[in-house]
Amino acid sequence: MRTYCHRQKKKTRHLAQPTKIDKPSQSLEQPPTLQERSNEAGLAEWAAQQQKWAKIGNTLLDQPPGNSPQPWLQPQRDKNTTSPSEPSANLHISPMMGANPPIQRLMDVKSFQEATKGTLFHPRKRITAIDDPLKKIDQSGMDSILLNELLEAINGWLKVASEDSTRKPVVLQLREEVMTELEKIATSLSQDFDPENPPPTRSRRNAFSAEVTGAGKKYGSDFSDFDSKQFRVSGRAPQRRIEEVKRLKMEDGTVVYYATGLVTNFKGKAPMVAPYPDPIPLGDWYPKVTHINGMAVAPKSGLLSAAALQETVNTALGGKEDVAFGQDAVDILYTYSAQRGNVVFDLIDCIKGKLQIEDEATGKQEDIMLDAVRSKKRVTVSAHSRGTIKTDNAVRNVHEILTKELLPSIRAARQEEVMAYWQANDPQIGLSADMLAELSYSGFAAEEAKKQLNTYIQLIYAGNAVQHPSAFIDVKLFVGGLDLVSMFVGTYSETGRKIDSIIGTGGSKKSKLKSVGGTKGHGFVGNYVPTVGQEIAQDLQQR
């Protein structure tokens, strides 16, 4: 009879066991030994694990036994006689590891394309469906969401592939690697989060209930339900998490973010968010890097672009620990600006932005910047395409708000000096010294607001769609040589930016515009993420 080899975990829970099984010894003097159980016992625990994850909508372990690799079975082959054509030919399973191979990187997309290259009579057609999710993993790193997307593409190809396909062994090997990574991630997450024993939450005022946006709803191309929703992308692949978060301002003015649910997968282009039993306060956490998307972007594409940017920033930082947060990765707060159904409605939304009509997404950008200035903690505000329009409107609004807030203190501090000046230097234009002094106070407050904005905000516009950027923050503008949106809608050249600043129609003199390449288009991930990620990383290293 085959035997089930139990993994050694930091903490073991048996959710559906007829009898109590003691933990293996963790003594240093006696190394843990393998425990053997029947396949029936292993299957029972696997089923219990599935039930546990079903409570939060996780699909990592949805594959039924028999239709997928069965990690609860010990291999019964001679370890020295593995067939080169078998998917696990390159996997080494040591005795102390039982049926669990070590974490390993997947083959990259170039290696996969080379291994499955086409010929004149056998071109690569259907198998190209596997290339796209592999590219996303190359860009963003492995996590459960991207691995599930890759697994779906692999299974889709295997359903139509012929039995004698020469590419099948390569695809089967990739599938086994994916399943290995998914099981490893699922095991780690199950240790970190138990839906039957959720993390305790602090007492809070004006709290909100956890809800799932669009639960059970089918989406076409209008994702207005998700507009201005915010998500925190945290950790590094493969342990990356994407959580929906909400900002709450307490009565004493303190801002606290709450995690309300975990993105476990996607249904079409909409995220599947498993709500936490109670919103979890994130304590002193604040966003150091933020991003908002452009037009015609579905939630799935937007979240994956945020994950790609987060991975690029952390890669550029070289894995250096974030001392401020006590963590080994910089998080990103992503604000979704909704796709409105079709290009016409998205363009209308852009026009509203051009007319400086505020909406919820603009308001979220204002909150991010005001929180940064008031808490004196620098934040990166990254925007793409239509997001640059909303963000630029937010910059103007924030500058006006800060100017009004600073005015009383500046008036009190400089009243004697300013009044004495205008009483001694009447310009003979029909304005009293008091009126001239008020104008001076307003000017001083505006300059101080501008100084604070530049101190605490790094502003980046990628695929810039703003023709006359505000002059209140020194912004880094990035455009592509083939980016038609920037070319016809926004500031497109450094010369044009300088002229705009000199004649006073818009833009700060210290702003900079750079091209990311003559062949680059408008898409964010493929064209702008590498450059924007490097720019953010450089700023983070100087904080």
Automatic annotation (TrEMBL):
Q: Where is the composition biased (Low complexity)?
A: 46-55
Q: Where is the composition biased (Basic residues)?
A: 1-14
Q: Where is the composition biased (Polar residues)?
A: 24-36
Region of interest called Disordered, as start-end residue ranges on this chain: 1-98
Q: State the name under which the record lists this protein.
A: Uncharacterized protein
Q: What is the lineage of its organism?
A: Bacteria, Bacillati, Cyanobacteriota, Cyanophyceae, Acaryochloridales
